[in-house]
Specification:
Helix content: 25-40%
Function: Nucleoside permease that transports adenosine and guanosine.
Mean pLDDT: 93
CATH superfamily: Nucleoside phosphorylase domain
Number of helices: 12
Pfam family, one: NUP
Radius of gyration: 21 Å
Shape: globular
Number of domains: 1
Keywords: Transport
Low-confidence stretches: 10-17, 375-388
Family: Belongs to the NUP family.
Protein name: Purine nucleoside permease
């Protein structure tokens, strides 16, 4: 039986309200309609049994959807960083959800570097890097000795670590959880089709693009966030370098998308308020197109004609994602209710949730969590000095 409600719209007694609260074990986060609809009609579970209108969600996607028991929920944020951050902020402040033990599966499509993967490839990231948060020259006006028109903020060359930080430049998620998600996803049967197979053969002539010419698989690599949709070998190389630079050489640039750092910042602030557990986040992106052309193709052709990987990238969201969701539910009592401990740093570039990141300036809060009741002066964050 389908049901609909509006978050916070009904006044209940405290006891009744506790009974009405939805406590998801897994919350799936998609970014646009095709991604969201990929979960509809699947045999494993029905997220349309319970529909909750949440004030603050995108006007295009105003509802969260849940199974009847509330164990699995799903939403669509809307595209780009502002929509992602706004929707997730609305979710974590909705009083009808208890998200303190929820696992969040970011599940969308992305561009991919043919050095790491191909059309239909499923990727799981440890790092999300906000590569667009930089100074920018038009390439026709950049200094002659610069390899790119992008320069980290506050810096004076493309290879200098940013000297002014906003805090959203890099997020790192739970590596043990990522490895679990990879093992589960590898149980799925990935979709492929003949147009994608034919198109990816264009990349076979370049040994550096061997992964781009191969069939889709599950890959561990990192993701780059920017509202700009870029293409071409030069920008691909520039953001490869940005990813390495911002993560102190640890991150591996792979996928390109528009939302993840916005989503992660909203979840991190919710974690600071103890509304969510940031160590329960999985970043999954399936590849719909290549971030650069094959030999002999122009960047404009690569962008405007696009590749034929869209359909299989959408199909591979549930193909890989359902085993991840079911793996968490099946192992709930034994492992996931208590939480899968991270063996790595988890959080942002500032160390806001505690711990010490091995990138950026280290923990700017003395190793502990950010003191939420105090204002932190921007002057302390600027001109931080070189970070190698």
């Amino acid at each position: 039986m389908l049901s609909s409600a509006t978050c916070g719209a009904t006044t209940w007694s405290l006891a009744t309200h506790k009974e009405k609260i939805i406590t998801p074990k897994v919350f799936i986060i998609d970014m646009f309609a095709d991604e969201g609809e990929s979960w509809f009609g699947i045999p494993e579970f029905n997220v349309l049994e319970k529909n909750i209108t949440v004030p603050g969600f995108s006007p295009l996607f105003p509802q969260a959807h849940c199974t009847a028991d509330g164990n699995i929920c799903q939403l669509v944020t809307g595209e780009a960083e502002i929509n992602a951050a706004s929707t997730i902020t609305a979710l974590v402040t909705c009083p009808d959800f208890n998200l303190t033990q929820t696992y969040f599966l970011i599940a969308g499509i992305a561009g991919i570097s043919p050095k790491l993967g191909t059309l239909g490839t499923v990727t799981f990231a440890r790092f999300a890097v906000q590569v667009g948060l930089q100074f920018e020259f038009d390439a026709r006006e950049k200094p002659d000795n610069f390899t790119t028109g992008y320069v980290p903020q506050g810096s004076f060359s493309p290879d200098e670590f940013p000297q002014e930080l906003y805090g959203t430049e890099v997020f790192e998620v739970n590596e043990n959880l990522r490895q679990f998600a990879i093992r589960m996803a590898e149980k799925g049967r990935l979709a492929d089709d003949e147009p994608s197979r034919m198109y990816r053969q264009n990349y076979a002539s370049d040994p550096a693009f061997a992964a781009g010419a191969a069939p889709p698989s599950v890959v561990a690599c990192d993701t780059a966030t920017s509202d700009q949709f870029w293409t071409g070998a030069l920008l691909g190389a520039a953001f490869e370098n940005t990813t390495k630079l911002f993560t102190n050489g640890t991150g591996t640039y792979c996928t390109t998308q528009q939302e993840d750092n916005g989503t992660l910042e909203a979840l991190l602030r919710a974690a600071l308020a103890r509304r969510v557990d940031f160590s329960r986040v999985v970043i999954m992106r399936t590849a719909s197109d290549f971030d650069r052309p094959f030999d002999g193709e122009t960047a404009a052709t690569n962008l405007f004609l696009m590749s034929p990987g869209f359909d299989i990238s959408i199909k591979n969201i549930p193909a890989a994602g359902v085993p991840v969701v079911m793996g968490i539910l099946d192992g709930w009592k034994e492992t996931f209710e208590e939480g899968l401990k991270a063996g790595n740093y988890v959080g942002d570039i500032f160390g806001t949730l505690g711990g010490v990141p091995n990138f950026g300036p280290g923990n700017i809060f003395g190793g502990g969590r950010a003191p939420v009741q105090k204002r932190f002066l921007r002057r302390r964050l600027s001109r931080i000095g070189r970070v190698g």
